[in-house]
Automatic annotation (TrEMBL):
Record-annotated HTH luxR-type domain positions: 211-276
PANTHER family xrefs: DNA-BINDING TRANSCRIPTIONAL ACTIVATOR DEVR_DOSR
InterPro entries membership: GAF, GAF-like_dom_sf, HTH-type_RamA-like, Sig_transdc_resp-reg_C-effctor, Tscrpt_reg_LuxR_C, WH-like_DNA-bd_sf
Gene Ontology molecular function terms on file: DNA binding
Source species taxonomy: Bacteria, Bacillati, Actinomycetota, Actinomycetes, Mycobacteriales
A Pfam family of this chain: GAF
Organism expressing this protein natively: Corynebacterium frankenforstense DSM 45800
GO biological process: regulation of DNA-templated transcription
UniProt keyword terms in alphabetical order: DNA-binding, Transcription, Transcription regulation
Protein name as annotated: LuxR family transcriptional regulator
Amino acid sequence: MEAQRIKDDDEAVRVALTSLRNATGIPVAMYATLLPDNRLQITQWLGLRTPALHNLVIPPGVGVGGRVVASRRPVGVSDYARATIISHENDKIIQDEGLYSLVAVPVIVRREIRGCLYVGVHSPVRLGDKVIEEVTMTARTLEQDLAINSAMRTAAGVKSGGKAGRVMNGAEWEQIRSTHSKLRMLTNRITDEALRRELEVLCDQMVSPVHVKQTTKLSARELDVLSCVALGHTNVEAAEEMGIGAETVKSYLRSVMRKLGAHTRYEAVNAARRIGALP
């Protein structure tokens, strides 16, 4: 059970790092796990030029990561060696790697810090607010993935009478997400109101194990549109699936993105997953 937990969480981190690097174009992406003694250890990385930071253990309060853990807030420095908001015990290691700017964001699951996501560059480039926002969004998605892994493990234990059960892997969870979207599409075709409500309850139950409080209220139609987007449908395909016009789909998407503070349709899907509106 513990080995499977580590495997599932490691896979979620790998996906987050790859997604983050692809979304930002920033060459270096890292994840540091918070150890039981409040130290951080860099456990996964992409784009490092040297082994200087490989598996590095960072004491409490040290550097960018230490400040993130202490403040529970994102931290960015544009010139690491001259930054005044961090301590400098690791300057030699950072210099050996050649990193210039770093941004780190906490990953918090059920109010507990699980680790930090980092991005960095080797050249004198300032990583601005847009980068911090992108790292923060990726961290929120990772938080939900880790929470889902935990919920699925808990559910497996309950179903097996408190004993360790088999836990769904990433591919199986993606199947759950796909099934949820298709179920919403099926619900959209039902004319019997009582049956429709029953199916909507089932959709809600598929995301309830995450226990994320939904503070933004999305309408059933808005959720239907997001479910189509989650399946990779275009606006025209979503319109055909829902039996409405493409302009109406665009209108629903604009409303959803405004409510969720998203800039693209895919950001809206991720934001909906973070608040527990989609699995």
